[in-house]
């Protein structure tokens, strides 16, 4: 058991939970319970243009209906801007972050000039244009200076992973041109502030991990353990998401809906009530770590 374990589920309130997000919620809850730890819910609502009014309350109610209750009151990222500003100020003071005046068009033109045209559907790596100054352009965003870009880590499900962040992403955004905080900075600051020791989330977020590890190093923060769960795919073979029309959870029969999520995680069906079912899944959870891991 790991009494110091602190995990979290961190949904974005861009709509109600769907089958894919329930898998991540259930997995993070089970991992916390299997380790004898605490489970938190954080509403990641910093991307305000995408947030749907009332979706946060809907998500919390959906979790409650499934018996997934947090051990502490939920938090909202939109109320934590002072923490993000303090982190950015610390990075700027250390020379680890700098202002950027590039638009998307500027970045694509710079990459093309370097013989690195943007690949359709992939994020354009930042070419480093403003590393040495704004060159007369007004500051639009703030970026982390990626010095040593090769990052290796071990995922508890996926195994050994690595990414050359400098080549794949480049100096990445900490505060956006529209003034909103970037996900990478907010999640790293919040995980540290809330004492998160274990992050359990969907496999689609695995490629965020190396950037977050670099940020943790730059801020002098401890890195949590990571586990990325299998994705739920739609009929077209693409990841089920709100963007491609994923339907809200059908909670007319919560146990049936939880069984579907548990099956994605390789857990057996259970005929009893919700409490008995989740208790059996805690016992069957395959990703236990020792307290020293």
Automatic annotation (TrEMBL):
Its EC number is 6.1.1.-. ATP binds at residue 242. GO terms for molecular function: ATP binding; glutamate-tRNA ligase activity; zinc ion binding. It holds the Pfam family tRNA-synt_1c. Catalyzes the tRNA-independent activation of glutamate in presence of ATP and the subsequent transfer of glutamate onto a tRNA(Asp). Glutamate is transferred on the 2-amino-5-(4,5-dihydroxy-2-cyclopenten-1-yl) moiety of the queuosine in the wobble position of the QUC anticodon. The keyword Protein biosynthesis applies. Residues 6-248 form the Glutamyl/glutaminyl-tRNA synthetase class Ib catalytic domain. Keywords: Aminoacyl-tRNA synthetase, ATP-binding, Ligase, Metal-binding, Nucleotide-binding, Protein biosynthesis, Zinc. A motif ('HIGH' region) lies at residues 11-21. InterPro entries: Glu-Q_tRNA(Asp)_Synthase, Glu/Gln-tRNA-synth, Glu/Gln-tRNA-synth_Ib_cat-dom, GluQ/Sye, Rossmann-like_a/b/a_fold. PANTHER family: GLUTAMATE--TRNA LIGASE, GLUTAMYL-Q TRNA(ASP) SYNTHETASE. A motif ('KMSKS' region) lies at residues 239-243. This is Glutamyl-Q tRNA(Asp) synthetase.
